[in-house]
Amino acid sequence: MRDGRGQIRRRAGLRLWLSGGWLALVLFGAVFAPWVAPQDPLMQDLFTSRLPPFWMEGAEPGYWLGTDNLGRDVLSRILHGARIALIVAVSAGAATCLIGATLGLIAGYFRGMADIVISRLVDIWMAFPPVLFAILLIAVLGTGLTSIIVAIVVIDWTRFARVVRAEAMNQGAMDYVASAQVAGYSRLRTMLVEILPNVLPTIGALLTLEMGISVIVEAILSFVNLSIPTDDPTWGGMIAEGRQAIHQSWWVLVFPLVTLFLTVLSFSQLGEGLKDRFDPVLR
Amino acid sequence: MSAYLEIRNLSAVVRGTGERLLRGVSIALEAGHVTGLVGESGAGKSMIGKAVLGILPTAVEVVEGEILLDGQDLLRMPPDRRRRLIGATAALIPQDPLTALNPSHRVGPQITDRLVDILGWSRADAEARAQALLDEVHIAEPARVMKSYPHELSGGMRQRILIAAAFAAEPRLIVADEPTTALDVTVQKQILRLIAEMQARHGTAMLFVTHDLGVVSKICQDLAVLYAGKVVEQAAMRDFFRAPAHPYSRALLAATPQYTDPTGSLRPVERDVLDTVEAEIAADDREWRNGQAGP
User: Fold this and answer.
1) What are the residue ranges of helices labelled H in chain B?
2) Chain B residues in contact with A200 (beta carbon < 8 A)
3) What pLDDT does A62 receive?
4) pLDDT of A60-70, one tens digit each?
5) For residue A182, which residues of chain B lie inside 8 Å, CB to CB?
6) CB-based contact B99:B113 (threshold 8 Å)
7) Which of A112, A231, B52, B122 is 20 to 30 A removed from A64 (C-alpha atoms)?
8) 3-state secondary structure of B53
9) HSE-up (13 A, CA, CB side) for residue A278
10) For chain B, which residues score pLDDT lower than 50?
11) How far from A115 is each of A68, A111, A173, A197, B15, CA to CA, in Å?
12) End-to-end CA, chain A
């Protein structure tokens, strides 16, 4: 397709719509969980335990995705679990991005001593096995939402630092950076005004990827029971509980798993789609 | 008469390994003149331009020498002062027009911002100046071009914009770093003519880095021939083409292909000529090392 100025305009892309649509749905569910959830996610009722999802024999209206062995509604728990998943995704993703990208930008553009220190730190950091590192951190910090977010940031900032550093190095070698330098601009201004906008598409793609990863890490920590100490439902916690009764009621495991899977996939696809659409070099 | 830009005995090495990249380079450039820096790839011609503008890669270290701009030594100046001085008096026409404009910003601000931010012009003055300059480099519809992003423009257009940007602040010195190398042959000629025209009109002193003697002959008054970071000959243009003094210069001149006889005129630089230069450089290095070890 070409627009009025004869430029090629790419189609918005199916994957941008699908991933964005799914995430919008999850976000809506998370924000309005108390109103849209058909049941109280914590209410136990042994008379309604292990109800199957709506299309199977023995299902009851109001329990669309069935119930677990304590009689709690799976759909309601998924909707409420989305809150913690998204809080973790957004805050851990943003904090990781901010710290990692800043260090990467400094290392990649200023080089020299700053680069040596940051790069060695990244090397050392990456030698730790990440999941064990997270579990160790939670053990030290104690469980809770903040600990999870801190753990994710501490583990994953290196991803941003590495990629952004490489990209900043690429951009730093461009002639427009030399021109800005000759014009008399400071190094800091050059970094922020000349380099940063060109690294931004990469940072954006990484950010959404990181949000997906945060959701996974939170689920893993919930799965090993190191996440939220309260009764608040989490997707990882639901998967862990569902595992115990998988032969009697597979839906307790499968629905949160599928939700998790689609959400993580959507985050990464959203990032790629946005990058394709807004990268100034491709644009 | 003292030169506007004077490089004296400039030596640069690779940080860490100490490998010499510039070997006691001395070049003088009169105000309003164009001096060509000619040499093979890796001879250090771009390096000299970068040293003058203070944009050497971090891996390169200047170990001795002076760069006098209007009598002030750039190398013995606080970095901040040097940056401001260069920003106010010098400019760069870079080699590759495709990477020399920031893809994230519109063209207009890339010309006007530095006038406003660094030199304290008003926004309106800067806009008017940019328009006038784009007009001067024969760009139709300057107003529209200023609103464009670089990727919407051709390579030749972008090089014109870069030339306009370089002249925008009326610099007294311009370093042109192979400004025609990345362009089509047909566009090359136009751009070269444009640079010559702009230089003559504005009376800007220019260091013109190139590997093309044909280009040099069209635009420069003097030239310096470099080999492995050493100036083997510096001469006025006319004298050089009439009677090049150094055997390497003679060989270089002989190696320039001529349209009338493309195959016969295309002679590689002879081995014994290279041996002569290499021997000179080795002698120079020995002397330099002794000098370093001594005091």
Assistant:
1) 45-53, 79-89, 107-117, 123-136, 142-146, 155-167, 185-202, 213-219, 237-242, 247-254, 271-293
2) 104
3) 84
4) 888 889 898 88
5) 53-55, 86-87, 90-92
6) no
7) A231
8) helix
9) 16
10) 1, 295
11) 52, 5, 15, 21, 16
12) 13
Digit-coded pLDDT (tens) for A56-114: 888 888 888 989 888 899 999 999 999 999 999 999 999 999 999 999 999 999 988 99
CATH number at residue A171: 1.10.3720.10
CB B198 within 8 A of CB B177: no
Residue A278 forms contact with B (CB below 8 Å): no
What's the pLDDT at A10? 55
| Closest B-chain CA to A174 | B99
Please report the domains of chain B, with CATH numbers, ordered by start residue. 5-293 (3.40.50.300)
* Residue A164, pLDDT above cutoff 80: yes
* Full domain range(s) for residue A115: 63-278
Q: Are A237 and A222 a contacting pair, CB within 8 Å?
A: yes
Q: Which residue has the tokens 């060109």?
A: A198
**Separation between Cα atoms, residue B18 and residue B57, nearest integer Å:** 15
**Nearest residue in A to B85, CA atom:** A184
Query: Distance of alpha carbon A88 from its chain centroid, rounded?
Result: 8
- Flag whether A172 is in a domain: yes
Establish if A222 belongs to a structural domain.
yes
At CB < 8 Å, which residues of chain B contact A?
50, 53-55, 58, 83-84, 86-88, 90-92, 94-96, 99-105, 110, 114, 117-118, 149, 151-152, 162, 165
pLDDT tens string B123-172: 999 999 999 999 999 999 999 999 999 999 998 899 999 999 999 999 99
End-to-end CA distance of chain B: 33
- Residue carrying structure tokens 């940072």: A203
Extract the tokens encoding A265.
């996939």
Rounded (5°) CA angle B186-B189-B192: 145
> What residue type is assigned to position A116 of the chain?
I
- Which of B103, B152, B162 is facing A198, going by the closest CB pair? B103
Number of domains in chain A: 1
Instruction: Tell me the three state secondary structure of residue A72.
Output: coil
